[in-house]
Design brief:
Blueprint: E1 17-24, E2 34-41, E3 45-51, H1 61-67, H2 71-74, H3 80-92, E4 96-99, H4 103-111, E5 121-124, H5 125-133, H6 142-148, H7 160-175, H8 181-192
Parallel strand pairs: 1-4, 4-5
Antiparallel strand pairs: 1-2, 2-3
């Protein structure tokens, strides 16, 4: 059987596969804001990692107890507006964007007018892992996924960069891919500490 070339999809040797995570002042897109935004390229490592000063929120005690991002830590940072073009450009050119439990993250991105490219695949690793891990409709935590795949301690949980590293580690394990060199280096560094 013969196919016309225009119908055959070409895949680059190293497609642009980005992983991301956000930390917010809370979970309500109406009132809450992004505090940290991290993006990691599967092949290159960290391409964006910034703390972000909220435009309106001045306090977030409930979530501060989880991610430990204080108002003092972000008071001299830029607001999301300054980073929008950079983030949009990264996502616009990505073949695939992956996160863990990203529904709320995507709502916050939409609120701040940050979209992925129209041909970009958006993939929630949590949904795939839930099929392996659980027979019910409960969505397993990133911590459960990391434990299942024996992810070493890569740093403080609920830091969006560390959570992104963990997501990459679990993705690589789930799909039997080679561990990227930059992630191997992080794992080795953490083991020696």
């Amino acid at each position: 059987m013969f196919f016309k070339q225009e119908y055959i999809a070409s895949v680059e040797t190293n497609p642009s596969i980005l992983f991301f995570d956000l930390e917010m002042t809370g979970g309500n897109t109406r009132y809450d804001e992004i505090l940290q935004f991290s993006i990691v390229d599967l092949y290159k490592g960290v391409v964006f990692n910034e703390y972000i000063k909220p435009r309106k929120c001045k306090s977030w005690k409930d979530t501060e107890a989880i991610h430990h991002i204080t108002p003092e830590m972000v008071k001299d940072c830029f607001t999301i507006n300054v980073h929008q073009a950079t983030i949009k450009n990264l996502f616009k050119h990505a073949d695939m964007v992956i996160g863990y439990g990203i529904e709320n993250d995507l709502r916050f991105m939409k609120k701040d007018k940050i979209f992925v490219g129209k041909n970009t695949i958006i993939y929630d690793l949590q949904k795939s892992f839930s099929r392996v891990y659980s027979n019910d409709n409960n969505m397993p935590s990133l911590k459960s996924c990391a434990q299942y795949y024996r992810c070493p301690n890569l740093g403080k949980a609920h830091d969006s960069l560390i959570d992104t590293y963990i997501t990459v580690y679990c993705f690589v394990c789930i799909y039997g891919l080679d561990m990227p060199k930059w992630l191997k280096d992080i794992v080795e560094k953490q083991k020696s500490n």
